[in-house]
Amino acid sequence: LGAGFANQTEVKADSSREVTNELTASMWKAQADSAKAKAKELEKQVEEYKKNYETLEKGIVDLEKTLENFGESYV
């Protein structure tokens, strides 16, 4: 079984580097695509946070004006 078994398990391919390179390239492409999608999603979140921040900032300014006017009413 020894010698015959060894010959039967031999893997034959045109080029092992071709298989490895294709696998590696597709793997890296998939990772790059995934990273780009994640970056795009994070950019959307940043834009939403900026809008929320601007809204809150405007609310603070409006509240400060209201408090100033309220204080002047009682002087």
Question: Would you mind describing this structure in some detail?
Answer:
This is Emml protein. Keywords: Coiled coil. It comes from Streptococcus pyogenes. There is one protein chain. With 75 residues, the chain is an all-alpha fold. The chain has one domain. Helices cover 87% and strands 0% of the residues. The longest helix is centred in the middle third of the chain and has 58 residues. The protein is rod-shaped. The termini are far apart. The model has no long low-confidence stretch (mean pLDDT 82).
Note the topology.
Layout: H1 2-8, H2 16-73
**Could you tell me the strand content as a percent range?**
under 5%
Domain count, please report it.
1
Helix content: over 70%
Average pLDDT score: 82
Number of helices: 2
Please tell me what the overall shape is. Answer: rod-shaped
Low-confidence segments, ≥5 residues, pLDDT <50?
none
Largest sheet: none
What is the first-to-last residue Cα distance? 106 Å
Order of helices and strands: HH
Structural class, from helix and strand content?
mainly alpha
Keywords: Coiled coil
Coiled coil: 25-66
Protein name: Emml protein
Organism: Streptococcus pyogenes
